[in-house]
Amino acid sequence: MTDMTKSSRGVIDTPEEVEFELRAHIGAIWSGGRLFIGMYTFLLASLAFSYFYLRSSNNGLLWRPDHVTAPTAYGWSIYSLTLLAALMAIFGQARLRKGSVSEWQTAIWVGVVAALLALFLQIYEFTAVPFYPGSSGYASTFIGYSVINIFTIFIVAYWLETTVARSLRMDKDLGVAKSQLSMHPSAQSFRANVASMTYFLGFVALASTLLFAMFYLL
Amino acid sequence: MTISAERPEVVEAMVPPAIVEPRKGRRGGEWLSQHVGTATICGFLGYLLGHWLGNYIGSAYPYIANSGQNALAALLALMFMVLGWLLGIGALNYPLAKLVGREAKGDVEYSGWTRYFRYNLDHKVVGIQYVVGVLLFFFTGGLLAMAIRTELLNPTVHVFSADTYIKIVSEHGTIMMMMASSVIVGPLGNYFVPLMIGSRRMAFPRIEAFSLWTFIAGYFVIFSALAYGGFPTGWTGYAPLQTQAGPGMVSYLFGFAVISIGMMTAGFNLAVTIINYRAPGMTWSRVPVFVWSIIATAALLTLASPVLAAAGLFGLLDRTAQTAFYVTEHGGSSYLWQNLFWFFGHPEVYIMALPGFGIVGEIIPVFCRKPLFAYRIAAAGMIGVALLSFFVWQHHLFQSGINPDMRPLFMLTTELISIPTGFIFLVGMGTLYKAKIRYEVPMLFCMAVYFNFLIGGISGVFLSDVPVNVTVHGGFFVLSHFHYTIMGGLIFAFFAGLYFWLPKMTGRAMNKKMGLWHFWTMFVFFNLTFFPMFIIGLLGQPRRVFTYAKNLQTLNEFSSIAAFCLGASFLIFVANLMWSQFIAPEKAPSNPWDSLGLEWQTATPIPYYNFERIPVIMTDPYHYSEIGAPTLADFGDAQPAYPSSSVATSTDPDQ
After folding, report:
1. Could you report the predicted ipTM of this complex, rounded to two decimals?
2. Is the domain of B193 the same as that of B300?
3. 3-state secondary structure of B640
């Protein structure tokens, strides 16, 4: 947990102060996770606004000429892998709540691999789209979507990887097995982080579904 | 989260999660660790690497190789420069360590002045770093303003070419708007919010430091536009001019994207801190009004800035990946930029205005020795302004060919926002009413805010009306209006805050006589500079044009000379700052204004952990001149440095 070890200033904190700091820290992770989703919603909403704005404007009848088709095989693969990463996080959290740390870790590792594969495919698709980026409004927004999706999947992969790496190190640092389930402040912080991460990945799953529908199905 | 499995016992289960005072850096090791010097070197190397990479990639694309302009190289150079800068300052140490599961330990901190050149996690150090950062922005933008006014001295004899002039105007506007978005939130918000809410720390100190160093990186990025030949769009960057501009436009777009990341992270951290780290007893009805203004601003920063980042990204893609977001002929739309930009840009106005109101609301009760009038109305007004600010952006498009049927709706929402703004203004008037005012330097600046904002605000109500907007759009009337609101409101409030809180921040008093000179010259010459511009605008002079009708020369000369004097007034401030803080420092009293604010109750200099004991808040900090006023807070066995009970009934600290 960030900055949460014994005070070094020569003053012993009262139990109430200890409790206050811990509650504030856990609350910060909780509300920070939700606020992050708010931020991300506005980022994605900007993309969605651009999509529908250009679609309804249809300037020069160049919203989407016939030859501009999205590579659906890549799209399905990227979407499926992103969804898998999110589902693994949700499933993993359920297992962690039941007390199974190892199943949570396995699920998260699967999620990491899925996210990295999705990231690779998204980058590859970005470099090999079968149309000229400036050929139409749709082509432009598709490129914008690709870049934002690369960023999104990178965040997903990073958050999953750092969380599972932290859980692996935690046992060693605290000197007990299944330390992630303990009442140690670090463990409480860890679980709050897992909850926020899972919530964010749920949001990513929902947003990915909507964006996938917009760019590949509509 | 509920844990149904058997929990393992951990011996250290009750280790106090207290704040860690930093480990001291090894003596003599300052220059071997990460600091601004290493950041500069890494940034420079990153720039070279990015430029080379961009040229390498660009050489494979005939349209780049044959164009003579490689926006990709410019973009990659700037991206790698920012990355190198962050790497060199140490911002990426923790995110990289997390990849192998390492958590934060007590950070190595260096004492003395060198800590101000490092990635420091103490919110007070970050606050001071921000002060220097925003002043850097401000004085750069100010010098460009002097250049603008020099050119406008004469309509026929030119100092700059038309092309150079518009680029100077654009750079001035962009730098000033970037600065203004953080001028209070960055320095004073980061420094004082934890102190005002009784917290020992920020929620995410690394994110706080990240926001600062990203903000500084944004300065270098936007300044690099001059090296790339500038950009001719003004600070609003409208397409199609944007798509036709040279590589300096990349600096503009990427600079705004970088700054927006800094704004997002700053707002995020402040919002989370205020929500979670308020001391026990600090209910929402006891939160200082400055903190209310910061949380309203933080919400705007967090939610509006991503839209700017997206708009910048799309512009960069247009220039590098050859997309057509803003190119109408290829299925895009230049209006799309206007919509995205102003969806951020209008909340941006309140990002700038609200913290100014917060400062003024915080300071005037101290010098009026009266409780803040209608505190709850002030807080509600700030939240109301923040909410409504998302529904007014289309009034910037009144002239851009939006559906005429939409105009009345956005005229109405724009006029509606003057209601909560008026509440905030009237709260100030109510506090001033029948008060025995002490006209100290911070109070004078606050009074100036009300005077200036009254002019700026009322002219804004006129501008929200479509007929007036149609008449004066794109002219000096609009220019004068927004300088009255932003400079007349925000910058005056910033100086009010600086004069008010610098004695707490540095422990040294500012020279009062020089402060008075600074105030009066700034106030008088500000009005002499910008008020004539209302007339100039009504007489038809357009913005961003380096020549004008001959009959406007006298007014322009008057405005220019006043502007030079206004510029000189800031030299008085700099002289005061240097004199009072470095050359002939005088120790400031622990509570020179007799404020009841919680930030004044802790020791000076403020210890790393802010409060020895987390205070329990008993009431709000505005019970001035109230007989039998409750004590502000219970500090446990730690005594406050300046007990609030001794100042609550005090009316004249000199007695």
Report:
1. 0.94
2. yes
3. coil
